[in-house]
Amino acid sequence: MTSTTPTPSATSPDTSAVVRPSGTAVVVGGNRTPFAKAGGHYAGASNLDMLTTVLDGLVARLGLAGERIGEVRAGAVLNHSKDFNLAREAVLGTTLAPTTPAVTVQRACATSIEAAWDLANKITLGQISSGIAGGADSTSDAPIVVSERLRHTLLKLNRARTVPDRLKLVGQLRPADLAPVAPNVNEPRTGLSMGEHQALTNLQWQVTREAQDAVALASHTQLARAWEDGLFDDLVTPFRGLTRDAALRADTTAEALAKLRTVFGNDHPEPTMTAGNSTPLSDGAAAVLLASPAWAAEHGLPALARVVDAEAAAVDFVHGQEGLLMGGAYAVPRLLARQGLGLDDIDLVEIHEAFAGVVVATTTAWADTTFCSEKLGLPALGTLDTDKLNVAGSSLAAGHPFAATGARIVATLATLLARRKAALIADGGSPDTPVRGLISVCAAGGQAVAMLLEA
Amino acid sequence: MPSPTLPAPLRGVTKQLNRSITQALGLTEAVTLRRTDPTSVDAPLTAGPVLVIGQGEDADAVAHHLHDAHLDVRRNLAAPTQQRWGAVVVVLTDLDAPGEEAERVLALGATLRELARCARVVTISRAVGEGDAPATAAARAGVSGLVRSLGKELRQGATANGIELAAGVAVTDPAALGTLRFLLSARSAFVDGQLLPVTGPGRAPADWTRPLVGSVVVVTGAARGIGAETVRVLARDGAHVLGVDVPAAGEALAHVMNEVGGVALQLDITSPDAGERLLERVARGPFNGRLDVLVHNAGILRDKLLANMRPEQWEPVIAVNLAAQVAVTTAVAQAHPGLVQVSLASTSGIAGNRGQTNYGFSKAGVIGATQAWAPVLAAGGGRANAVAPGFIETEMTASIPTMQREISRRVSSLGQGGKPVDVAEAVAFLASPQAGGINGAVLRVCGQNLVGR
């Protein structure tokens, strides 16, 4: 009662009570489309088209035609009501065995990392031995709905029995009710766009324009290099004539980024957020295959990296207690604490670049003793070495089809970790030395998912 | 064949024009060739009864084998009632001097008016060997002139081809019989006027209709055209296929490979580590380290008259069509010394073609490399052969100007262009165990194009 320090059990996980099944889930391979700009190459493609295509690309890469997979778990953020069974419909359109079960999931921008996490757990429990996590999103083919008044009237019309009743209902409609309602991804409870939310977070964490532009520049430079190095030869299959990510500007410079006008937080003093340091609206899909090591071995496929653990966080952004996209500042320290690891134990870090400000604010929070102590009851993680961060680029340069991003990152990071491990062993290193990678994906609604992989 | 890009009313006009040109020049009227029905492969093998001309052990052995293969084999020269000959096999292995062929050749001649549509004439003779007496060599060499001339006389999709057995190879060896089966079947629809040298015994497959069951085949340039069709035919014949194409062609590649339950590898074969990456993928499932056949199909065109040729037109053609093949095989053959290699050459590499000095260099180079690889791979139990397509209807040839394209089709004995599947069939045959006795050869699939040999 006299103690003023927060009790760790209230905020941080209790490692002593965790009993885990002994199974293991590994990342085997991945596939994605190049990501297109909204209204670009994939303007005529639906979520179902893209998800089907990306699954088929994975099948072709790994030789899985006719194979029954334990579960396909996938989703979209911008959902059409006709796609109520998106994942299963996609499976039926592929060359996978039609006996492959599928589940449609959604956790905003963390949809496919959530799906990967779920599958890893089922594999670890021995319930399934293989699973494909995926996501597709089209901002070009977004659902357009009718106004609430029109919708209610149409429903009543359907129930009305007599002509006069029907005429009466139609007579109640006003011209304004007929206007279509375009979707938006503004936060329903605050009415603010994600960009405006991030502008607030940037103010709070004093994130500068220079710091954000540096993140954006690194993203483009590193993604371009990864393409040149052929990293994506085994991770991407072209779609509809697009062979590389459309948002990528390999030749962008700090000067070019510094010239862009600001687009969010323009009512704040010294706004900092531009189209260059915010992700573009994108279309695309991604998928990643997870399996038990035994399944991978039976199929002669590689175990790129093991899924060690994952953690989700949600923050109270509605009452202004925390920034909307700051979930990663909570999920990651809690995950590392549970695993007894620090940032120094991590070789590669992937932070989804919803906005460059998310990366800067999240890593600043990890290093902030007061934040970590007061909000998490944990010691600060320390400063992240930026050489470990998003080494093959991330969403600012690649684009961000909401539900696809998690699977993109899991597959890319697992591939990078496997290569590092192979290089380590080739240099005479011990095969027992772990090569670890950490992922943080923020999502709408103040959520985030963090995941730890190890090769 | 009328161009599909022409508006419908004009197609009739083109057709009539073609017919007039054909008649005026004494060219062959094109008929729809008999090709393999994937739902009924090699059944029936021929378009009608098979006549075996010749006396003696070899002719008897050939007739017996064909009979065992459930063919309607006849030894009697009288035309079959209410039927036409599906094939005529002339056994000439015993020729020792000019003149000895006369009776059999004239007997063949008497059957020609009774041939079925897309019938086959196949000669089986001995290749000219070192130390042959001049009279023997003369008679043996004469057969090739007979076959090539006869090919130009046959009509209605019928073809004439020959098998030249080296000393020590029996007509009953799997390679001799396998080559005969290929030439008799619908698989050789666009092979005409060719003499295939058989220099070794080969191995009979467990199932003649699926001779590649269990084998792993790598095909480069697999995303479209001849490559994609090759993948389909190899899979039809039982092979596990790893299809390779440049990353930019990945979408089409994935589609083709899923169609046959194969695997897609996005790889630029000109990259320095291409061989290594290919081996890495083969080491994994579902291949698990097995690699039997490598088909070098990837090729590009950058046509220009030499006077206007720039490095960006010369260099990539040589790099993709020739240098990459040599580099990849060098890497792969070390790990798989019994490799069976089939490379795509071209009639442009044999006869040359205006505007194709770069392509011609690369394809003639492929033939040179094939002949050099042949003994190297044979030492490990493998072999190297090439297929030289003539005019084939593909996306690539669709870009040739209409008139030139029409002439290219017409100047073959079959009076038409071939289809990608015709090339694919030849590749699949050379990949099969029964072709084990063919090494260092160039098989033309050109409908007996007038150019070159």
Can you give keywords for this protein?
heterodimer, A: 455 residues, alpha+beta, 10-stranded mixed β-sheet, two-stranded antiparallel sheet, 15 helices, 12 strands, globular, disordered N terminus, B: 453 residues, alpha/beta, Rossmann fold, 3 domains, 7-stranded parallel β-sheet, 6-stranded parallel β-sheet, 13 helices, 16% strand
Question: How does this model look, in words?
Answer:
The complex is a heterodimer of chains A (455) and B (453). Chain A is an alpha+beta fold and 455 residues long. Chain A has a domain at 148-178. Chain A is 36% helix and 16% strand. Chain A is built from 15 helices and 12 strands. In chain A, strands 1, 2, 3, 4, 5, 8, 9, 10, 11 and 12 form a 10-stranded mixed beta sheet that branches. Chain A has a two-stranded antiparallel ribbon with strand order 6-7. In chain A, strand 11 (436-443) and strand 12 (447-454) form a beta hairpin. In chain A, helix 2 crosses helix 3 and helix 8 packs across helix 12. The longest helix of chain A is centred in the C-terminal third of the chain and has 22 residues, at 405-426. Mean pLDDT of chain A is 93; it is low at 1-10. With 453 residues, chain B is α/β, with parallel strands linked by helices. Chain B has 3 domains: 1-26, no CATH class; 50-198, 3-Layer(aba) Sandwich (Rossmann fold); 216-445, 3-Layer(aba) Sandwich (Rossmann fold). Helices cover 39% and strands 16% of the residues of chain B. Chain B is built from 13 helices and 13 strands. Chain B has helices at residues 8-25, 57-68, 102-111, 134-153, 174-184, 225-236, 250-259, 274-283, 311-335, 347-351, 357-379, 402-410, 420-431, and strands spanning 50-53, 73-74, 85-91, 115-126, 159-165, 195-198, 216-220, 240-245, 263-266, 293-296, 340-344, 383-389, 442-445. In chain B, strands 9-8-7-10-11-12-13 form a 7-stranded parallel beta sheet, with helices on both faces. In chain B, helix 6 packs across helix 13 and helix 8 (274-283) packs across helix 9. Chain B starts with 7 loop residues before the first helix and ends in an 8-residue tail after the last strand. The model of chain B has no long low-confidence stretch (mean pLDDT 94). Chain A binds chain B through residues 53, 56-57, 59-63, 65-66, 95, 230, 232-234, 236-240, 243, 298-302, and chain B through 247-251, 253-255, 257-258, 260-268, 271, 284-288.
